[in-house]
Write a structure and sequence with these properties.
Blueprint: H1 21-37, E1 44-50, E2 57-64
């Protein structure tokens, strides 16, 4: 797969202003379908590559966001 030069790469958030409404809706729907198919029930991001000339997009990766917060404060060492 050919990669675009870094200067031509562009990150598009599905909620970004200025994104074409149809493309934004399609990206959100595709990400939602992927999460439902995998039965994913947590926070995360789904990334796609978008062809700027044709507005076609291709799945790139899913990044899960797993955070475990302790219910009790953790002891911190006392710097002396």
């Amino acid at each position: 797969m050919l990669q675009a030069p870094r200067a031509r790469r562009k990150r598009l958030s599905a909620s970004a202003r200025g994104a074409e409404d149809d493309l934004r809706r399609e990206l959100k729907a595709a990400a939602r379908r992927l999460g439902e198919a995998a039965r994913y029930r947590s926070a995360g991001t789904v990334e796609f590559l978008v062809d700027q000339d044709t507005a076609r997009f291709y799945f790139l990766e899913v990044n899960t966001r797993l955070q475990a917060r302790p219910r009790v404060p953790l002891p911190y060492p006392n710097p002396a």
